Structure formats: structure tokens, C-alpha cells
User: What shape does this take?
Amino acid sequence: MNQPQTTPWPILRSYDRDSLARIAMPIGGIGTGTISLGGRGDLRDWENVNRPAKGFRPRQALLAVHARTADGHATTRALEGPLDASEYEGADGSHAANHGLPRFRNCAFHAAYPFGQVELSDPAVPVTATVEAFNPLVPGDANASGLPIAVLRVRLRNTTDQPLHVGVMAAMTNHIGADGTEGAPAKNVNTFRSDAGLSGLFMQAGDVPATSHNWGSLALTTPAQSGHHVSCRPVVPIHSWGTDLLDLWDDFSADGQLDDVPPGSTPVPNDPLGALAVSLTLAPGQSSAITFVLAWHFPNRPSWSPNGQGAWLNNGRCASGDPIIGNYYTTQFTDAWDAAAKATTRLDALERDTLTFVRAFCDSALPPAVKEAALFNLSTLRTQTCFRTPDGRLYGWEGVFERHGSCLGSCTHVWNYEQAVPFLFGDLARTMREVEFAHATRDDGLMSFRVHLPLEFATKHGMAAADGQMGCVMKLYREWKLSGDDAWLSSLWPKAKAALSFCWIKGGWDADRDGVMEGCQHNTMDVEYYGPNPQMQGWYLGALRAAEEMANHLCDDAFARECRGLFERGRAWMDEHLFNGQYYEHQVRPPAGPDSIADGLRHPRFGARDLSDPDFQLGAGCLVDQLVGQYMAKICGLGDLHDPRHVRTTLGSIFKHNRHEEFFDHFNPMRSYVLGDETALVMASYPLGRRPRHPFPYFNEVMTGFEYTAAVGMMQEGLRGEGLRVIEAIRARYDGRRRNPFDEAECGRHYARAMASWAAVVALTGFSYDARTASIRFAQTEQPATFFWSNGYAWGTFTQRPAENEIEATLAVLGGSVRVAELMIDGREPVRPSTAVVVTPGDPLTVRVGAAAGV
Assistant: This one.
């Protein structure tokens, strides 16, 4: 039971000793918060208590190993590599975690998210050690991927020619009551428990108020395993300064085991240190693994933030603080011990399923940088950027700062870009659409682009974003297409129809109904654009096409015809009037005055103050994501929104004019996410001159989510090499030495928009699935190739073996099941089985695709 996997974990990227300083890989479930595995093996950024907490850690938290030879020679080391030089200095010495402990001399980090491995060795230590960490991540199974646990495994190998007695210790202080910003432990209690094949420490609150968002429980456990001896120190008393760590180290260093201390022998601190050790004997050359499962349970999540940023009532202040909205994961378990126990009984299967997913993905015929960008950015789903309320719905900040969230409300214009949730966790994506339309959209069609919580206040923000609202219409179509759920679409259609019709109100975005957005358009640049521009127009055209498709299916023929007519007129106008021969540009049209702008469109804090000559406009700029609507339309299977020749030319211009191969001479008055000798796409360039005196504020910045959008657009239009170079440059910047590979920042860390990186997987594999017709599609390759695919509910691989006149194709399902009535490879006639086939794990579908295709 619970035997560690003996096959090696996959490795997508390795980092040497010089590239470890910034690595912090989040370990935790979707909506549960995380703890991060540092590049040298330390546990950092304990963000499992309902808020971001960069740099926060319990007073003590460590893994250590003891090894003793038959002749009595012994050594004890922290299971960590050397400190980075930047951590040496401080007012009173190093502030690094566990800075004073002996450690291994050599260290490397290997990753294929969610698997992280810290490889440790030292000529003075008779074992090599690998610290392995993961949390289950299984496409289509949000519950399995949402467990509040961190699995930590220490794999040891005896490098000597004699038997070794070894022990591994996991120790931590009970920090319940503190979240990295406020609160403190108060008489917390640690208890040793052993039942149902699980032993360990159950950590509970003492005098921490049960209503506090810092109240909850922790569990540090190890599964039973043959040949392993478990010992424990539930509490290590403090005699004076720092003596709990001293006593614990002395105890463990004596024999690799722990001796209990009689209760009440000396005073116990508010955050008592507890430890768990597992010891065994290793024969010469033998390897063995010791597993720890760390679990947590903190049920009192406040609405959006515990620092008041989420408050909106009573002139911006809640009467009694931010309301508690709770956590979905804590409704699944009674406490942290229950979470550890239930997860441990399934750990073998959960690890196998996660390995199956990651191996299939890593073995897919995609460029390494594309796989890395897509897979590593999935870590954002596990950070405090995302959470689930007790009803199971998923919500997201834009990102997170060190101690609080960045920009509340599942911001529609930011979350428009990401593609990971719909293609990996379709049920969660649908909950976001339900919130947007069923709760955040008023009867008049105004959708609050930031949703307030509890849901009874969902529309209180009262501001509409042109790109956010139009993108949500496209996302509704995408989720319906992937799920095929007609009843779900029908339930949301009235509000979706109202949201699109809102464009046509007096003073609205397209008040004259000519298919062109020219009104006051608040957007993801945090300003309002005035006049037609490619970014908003593309979203509008995409929304019209999506609404046309949905209306036709629902027999709303008149609305479908209106959408089609507006689309045709707006498309033609954009190509005729906004394309300047190199790219699409913005025609700035000042409004007649504030009274000509409908309520809810102009932000009271952002944007132009002088409407007669508005500043913060794009103007003649070449915008990095000017074709974002086309990017989304291709993902949704909605076809061309613009003249394909203009699209390809525009993408080439973005690559030519916005790409900088170094930034030594680049002026940027705002935030810097790229510096020095790095390569990136800037937000806007002005190759034709005519730059506004004050363009939109971010024009000279670089942000990865926008870069991915441009790169994927290039790939969609046949500029694969250019798109790949953009993605390679992004991942070169997130190299572990300069930046954390698991934390692409924009306005905050772990930024949601960066999950646009998954779209490159969709683009390069050519994958699409239409559950309405059970049609599945892939790109054709010249050589035998295997792709990973996922539609949000099922996932697996697609292998094609081209021959002279036909292609042998095999669709394999590794999780879930998928109904197939038509299989298509680009450039070939589709294959249609005589009856639809339900493909399940272990029963692949193999067809021959050619001139005379058939099963």
C-alpha cells in the first residue's frame, strides 16, 4: 500500500547550481493555496492560509537526513543545497531559511510540472538524495487536482560498500494563526496520531479564534511502509533562545530517530516545533524512498482579500471586515488529518494518473519551449491567484502581490486570454461563465467586468469592459462547443444575448449598429479607447460570430441574421479603414462630451480627463495583441474575422517592429519585466511615427500573456518559426537565475493572462473538438508524430503515421471518454465511422485517412 513509484519522474527542464536562486515551484491543489519547493530544496512561500504570502515560512520548517555507517561514522545534513550568494548578507547575518544548518555541496533542480526534483550530493555524505515534490494534477478531474496536500518524498541511495542506517526527518512549527501578514499562533497544540496506515503530527489551533481566516489545522504525516520505523517528537520545548532547534538537531543526529519528551516537562511556545522521522537500513548501492504528506485545512476564506481591498460596501468598507465566503476544498474534509488520510489511500492512483498526463504531454511532438510554457504556467491554477467557493465555482484574481491579491473579480478582460482552464478543466471553466452571465450581467446587458462576492453583490462593480464583455460571449461559445451541453447554453443565452445587445444602447460601443466599435471602450490597458481600433473591433467581430452560431442553434433566427449582418459590415470596414498596409491602427475619435457616453462605460478613476483631446490612446501604434480577437476565433473554430492576407502581414509587422533583441537602450517609464540583454515583444511600437504625446500607459512594457497571444497568432497563420522564437525568448527570461520559472508576472505574480501559453499547444497540434457533432480534428504532420490532446473532459494522445497515399491515425484516451463521429486531419477527407464511437482508456480508435478514407 502506498508504495512510491519506482519509475523515474519525467524531466522537461533542468537547472544547475547557478540557476536555482529564484525557483519556487508551487505545490498544492486548485483552490487550496500552496507551499513552494525552492530550487535548493527548502520549503518557502507558505501560502496555504487564504492569502498570498511571498517569503513567509513557519519559524522552523525543514527536511534533514542522518546516515551512520557500521563502524559508527555519522553525518547529519539539511536536505538542501548551498545558499545563493545573494542570501549571505543581512543586518544580523543571513536571513535565508535554515541558514545555519549543514547542507549538501552539490545541487540541481529538475522539473516537469507538477513534479519537482532537487538532486543533492556531497563527497562527505555517504548517500545521494533527491527531494521529490508534487501534488496530483489530472485533466478533467478538478477534485483530484484540488487536494490540500504537498507530497514530499526523499529518495536516498547508499553510495558506499557497507550497510548504512539512515533516517529522514521532517520538522515544522505549528504556525496556525499567522498568514504572513497578520495574526499570531496562540497556545497551539501538536498531537501524534497513528491510524489506518498513516502516522504523524496533527497540528491544531489553541486560542486562535475559530472565526479567524487564519484558523484551521495542519497535518504532517507519513504512510506506513514495510521496513520503515517511525518516531516522533510532537513538541520540542524551548529552554531559552533557539534551543528547540538545537535539541531537535541533537536528538536526530544521535541515531536518526526521535525521542519523545514527557508532556509538560518545560514550557511550550505558542507555535510548538514538532518533528517526524522515518529510519531504515540501506544495503550497499541500495535505494529507498520515504514519503511525507503535508496537509492543511483553513476554511475561513474572506471575500477577495483580508486587507480590505475586496470590500465594497459602506463606502468601500465592510461593516465587520470582509465577509467570509469559505473554501470548496474544506467542505470535502473535516480537517487536515482527514485530508491527509483520504488522499493517502488514493496516492498511488493519483500519482499514476498525474504521471500518465505529464509523460504523455512531455512526449508530445511539440517544441520544448512550448511544452515548458504551457505546463509550467499551470502552476498558476494552484496559487492564491485562484480559489473555489463552497459551491465549487472557480474565481481568480488577475495575479497576486506579496501579501494580497492583485485586482479582484475574475477580471473578464484579463481572463479572456487564458486557455488552460477550458481545455483541461471544462467544468471549472463553465462555472466562470455561469458567474459572468447568470450573476454579473444585469438585465440591461451590462456585465460587471469584476465580480464582487458574495454573489448577491456580483454586479456592484457596475463597470463594463468592451473587450471583457465581448470575450465572454466567445468563451460561452467555446465552453458550449467543448461540452455539447444544450441545456446549459439555453439557460445562459438570454443574458448572453443581452450582453451583446448592450453594444447597441444609446451612447454605447456601437450605438449606430454599423458593426464598428467606436464608443467609449474601457479595456485591458486600464484606460478607455475612443474610436475604432483593432483590439476591441476584433473582440466584437468574434462575439458577433459566436452569437450567430449560438442563435442559429437555438432557432433565434432574427438575432442570428442581425449578428451576421453586423459582422460582415464591421469586418469589411475594419479591413478597408484600419489596415495601413503594415498593420491595423487606431482611429482616435473624441466623443461629443461626457453626456454622450452611456453609464457604466467610463471608469471614474482611469482614462482621459480631456475628452476633446483624449490621452492614453493607442493611435498609430502597432499593438502586440491587436489580433487577439482572431487568436480567440481560431481557438473557437469561428474562422477568419479579417482578411487573412492582412492578418499575416500584421503578424509579420509585430515581429519586425515590436521585437527587441536587447533592452539596453530601451526607455520604459513604467514596470520592467524585461531588462538588459533579454529579448521580448514590447506592447506597442510606432514605426510610422505619430505616437501620441501620452499613449496608453503600458505601451513600452513587456508582458508575457500578450506575447503568447501574438506568438500563437503567428503559429495559427503559418509563421511558426517567428512564434516559436517569441516563446523561446520568454522562457529564456524565466531561467531560475533571473526569475522564477513558475511565476510569470504582470500586474502581480502568477498572472492569469500567462496561461494563454496553453493556446500554443492547441495551435501547433491543430486540435479542436466539437461535442455537438462529435467531431475531432488535428493538424497533419510530414513525419510520424504523437500529440497530446485534451478537451476539458477527456484527454489522451493522437498518433499519425503518414504513408504514401494514406495516414494511419490512432486516437487514444488516457482519461475520461470521448464520443467520435468524425475524425479529421487537415488536408484530408474526414473519416466517419458508420456509428459514433465512444473511445475509452485501453480501447483506442485506429483509422486510415486517405483519398478513400474509412475505418
In short: The chain is about 25% helix and 25% strand. Residues 463 and 604 are 10 Å apart (CA to CA). Residues 306-320 have pLDDT under 50 and may be disordered. The first strand starts at residue 13 and ends at 15.
